[in-house]
Amino acid sequence: QVQLQESGPGLVKPSETLTLTCTVSGGSISSNYWSWIRQPPGKGLEWIGYIYYSGSTNYNPSLKSRVTISGDTSKNQFSLRLSSVTAADTAVYYCARVMITFGGIIGFGMDVWGQGTTVTVSS
Amino acid sequence: QSVMTQPPSASGTPGQRVTISCSGSRSNIGSNFVYWYQQLPGTAPKLLIYRNNQRPSGVPDRFSGSKSGTSASLAISGLRSEDEADYYCAAWDGGLSGPVFGGGTKLTVL
Fold it and tell me: Are A106 and B44 within 8 A, CB to CB?
């Protein structure tokens, strides 16, 4: 059974770079797409981006200039870097496994989620 | 403001059937699969419905999904107190070239 666990600092200063890691257990990252999603306090879900094990990525256009998602198959982990953070980036950050279907009808669903990690941006 | 629109709240009494709507556009719901997530208080979202109307293993058949045109619906029959949660719809958006979520619906079991 695949399980995901986010890790990283809970507090980041404004203008600095937020870095989180998602460790995958019970399965290999070399067989799926993987995604980051966030949820500001009291608000809804926002997709950040995804990575395929080959290294190809896709990011939310609203965050694209500040986001980098990378993978490490040797550690079975993938990571999120978000630069130049502000208070608006304060949120619970989730990593998730993606069920994706490309073709005439596209399917993008996240079937396994980490428990989430809270990141606060404050000086 | 979300690309897909859900009512902010819904409610029902135990045993009732409730429906949550999700309104999108041709670029998302109108041309791609719809997914539904349940988020219990203080927990991570859980996949409830995939590919419009399919239930993952372990999801009770009280939960069902449907899609028509640019709208989708989640129906919960035989409402139970443990169904009290936030529900989100999601779909791939061709304009964004990525997935989008609805704003979420808070379901209260009275």
Answer: no
Using DSSP, state whether B25 is helix, strand or coil: coil
Burial state string for A10-24 with b = 16 or more CB within 10 A and e = fewer than 16? eebeeeeebbbbbbb
d(CA B32, CA B51): 8
Backbone dihedral region for residue A116 (phi beyond 0: left; psi -120 to 50: alpha; all else: beta): left
Strand B105-109 and strand B9-12: pairing? parallel
Residue B7 touches chain A, beta carbons under 8 Å: no
Cα A12 to Cα A84, A91, A118: the distances in Å are 10, 11, 11
Which pLDDT tens digits describe chain A residue by residue (123 residues)?
Answer: 999 999 999 999 999 999 999 999 999 999 899 999 999 999 999 999 999 988 899 999 999 999 999 999 999 999 999 999 999 999 999 999 999 888 888 999 999 999 999 999 999
Q: What is d(CA A96, CA B46) in angstroms, rounded to the nearest whole number?
A: 10
| Inter-chain touch A59–B50, beta carbons under 8 Å | no
